[in-house]
Sequence to fold (526 residues):
Amino acid sequence: MGGPGGRCGILFGLYLPSPCTLPTMSTDYLKRILTARVYDVAIESDLDPAPQVSARIGNTVLLKREDTQPVFSFKLRGAYNKMAALSPAERKRGVIAASAGNHAQGVALAATRMGCRAVIVMPETSPQVKIDAVRALGGEVVLAGDSYTDAFDHAMEMQQREKLTFVHPFDDPDVIAGQGTIAMEILRQHPGPIEAIFVPVGGGGLIAGVAAYVKQLRPEIKVIGVQSEDSCAMARSIKAGRRVRLNDVGLFADGTAVKYVGAETFRLTNKYVDEFVLVDTDAICAAIKDVFQDTRSVLEPSGALALAGAKRYAAQNKLKGKTLVAITSGANMNFDRLRLVAERADVGEAREAVFALTIPEQRGSFRRLCEAVGRRNVTEFNYRISDPEKAHVFVGLQIRSEAEIEKLAAGFQRKGFDTLDLTGNEMAKTHLRYMVGGKSSLAEHELLLRFEFPERPGALMTFLGAMSPEWNISLFHYRNQGDDYGRILVGIQVPPSDKKTFKAFLDGLGYPYWNETENPAYSLFL
Fold:
């Protein structure tokens, strides 16, 4: 698409300028990349197949494993190449850098190798694992602001005050060239056909270097940038035809949380990059899980951006039988974030559907709901009595594809249950699923029981089917945690005259249980 001698790309349906309309490149990036000094500290990372995700999407997916570098990120390539080009006087004065963490580690490692001082200004939101790693490598850490741009502004002030040499994380020809060596390795490692190389984008140093090299040697290969929807400064800048400064950026993918891209990286990206793909948090979490299943490695969110983009691009363009390369750019993951990743990965991969179902507040309703769910694996089941006529139930169900969501909703509707699809509802997924509960004036004679049962498909419905319809269920909470045993909290309204019969019922269920009615947390919150 584009006239003779030109090239254009599609960005959300918008025309990208042909390279012939842009200024002639003033720097020979091909020569810079071929002569870059990166292998004093970096390794030539593997280009690994991802067999499971490849089979699932019908294309060959290759992972460029920059997460296996000595600092678990590609950033040491550009940092070292820049510092190797400094004069002895510049090194003696020391260097300063602004970084969300990965560039910081590269600068700290390079400075230690070269015997010079390194001051690293990092956003206060940087993962602790990255802060600790920079200090362990000999860097002096200064925390400032909430984003890379905030840290950059503070670093500029320190540079002037202390006469240090600034090592830019992306907007510098030597840094760009260092990152471009990744493309040199990819083309050498896989000389066969490649449909596209997917690159995570923050400030643009990586994609600028990759695109500058690829488009001079293999122009038929698409170079596609991937950004998170809430940190897409480069995509918005390309769309606008000028650099756009964002007021705020999302911090989940902290390694690419950049408010304002570089001038040189914008120029190269505008000239060479074919398209952009935007992905959300759920898709990133799903990609982290994909890489773990194929490699047993855990990427940081920014490190999984490229794979998330490759999957989305392949689905949108109905690609089959193509070779797609995704650069896994880093693995500096905060351990605490794994909770969110595990929670959201199934939604991102269309493996979990979430619904709010309204059923009659009467005996037998739960059993009818169980029949509607059938043997499908339940991931979540939350309910608290709140209305004398209607019961609102929060339900999560395991699915195999996004197409099942509409079919499930239609099935519930046919059973007479009002159905609201919450699968794409951010508030529901982030907060509501944990908040179903609270005190209820309707929960008269309520007993609170905690049960355990062997976790297997259909086990929750079997449990519910064993519950006698003689007593009303007033509270129910279940969440599949991936454990061998399922854990359920149930409120059951049992008149005092039925206590003995109810005890016999519990003993006859065959499930371990604990009476939590006297638990102080129950009296406070439920």
Q: What stands out?
A: The chain has 20 helices and 20 strands. Residues 1-26 have pLDDT under 50 and may be disordered.
